[in-house]
Design a protein that fits this description.
Layout: H1 9-29, E1 38-40, E2 43-44, E3 59-60, E4 63-65, E5 71-72, H2 87-94, H3 102-111, H4 116-129, H5 134-139, H6 154-157, H7 165-176
Antiparallel strand pairs: 1-4, 2-3, 4-5
The protein binds zinc ion.
Length: 188
């Protein structure tokens, strides 16, 4: 495994494709509130750590119902809730020393100038907030041996198979798309 992670254009393009797949499934189901037809109502996002040369990468896919006008926003492998940094950066940046990807994550976070206090808040969220999400409460049973809160998210990332760190990260992000988005004001 390489000791430096390169979240290249190909990696980011794959994330965009996955987001389009997730969104297409949501759209096909129709409005979750009334069953009405969904129309595209995407909005701009500027996540830090995103490659600007990847077309469409700064758009959050979202829909508006033709009948009740309520908004439906599909899960995303690019954005974890409303956080400023991309989901990939948030996972890698939170990995603690001693885990497989820490050597890879550090230069990335330095290059992106992620403040130390932000990294500390992210780590806190993985141990205090993430463990209370329905995804983790119901989904942690699939990982044996169990992953303790202190091991997150590096211990989780290690459980996904892949030829390199990017491939593991991609699978991990797919798993995380079902994390319940915390309300505004509770973000790390
Ligand atoms: Zn509706």
């Amino acid at each position: 495994m390489r000791d430096a992670v390169v979240l290249d254009v190909r990696f980011h393009k794959a994330l965009v494709e996955i987001d389009h797949e997730l969104a297409a499934k949501v759209r096909a189901r129709g409005c979750p509130h009334c069953g009405g037809k969904l129309h595209s109502a995407q909005y701009p996002r500027k996540p830090r750590g995103w490659r600007p040369e990847v077309g469409g990468g700064e758009t959050r896919l979202s829909y508006c119902c033709e009948t009740c006008r309520r908004r439906t926003t599909p899960a995303s492998v690019r954005f974890l809730g409303r956080r400023v940094y991309s989901a990939a950066v948030m996972v890698l940046g939170s990995v603690l020393p001693g885990r497989l990807s820490v050597a890879a994550a550090r230069p990335l976070c330095v290059a992106l100038k992620v403040p130390k206090r932000t990294l500390a808040r992210w780590r806190e969220w993985w141990r205090q907030g993430f463990v209370k999400t329905p995804l983790w409460i119901h989904g942690q049973a699939r990982f044996m041996p169990t992953i303790g809160p202190q091991e997150l998210p590096g211990g989780l990332l290690e459980r996904f198979q892949g030829d390199d760190l990017e491939a593991r990260l991609m699978r991990c992000l797919r798993f995380l798309t079902t994390v319940a988005v915390p309300a505004r004001g509770h973000l790390p």
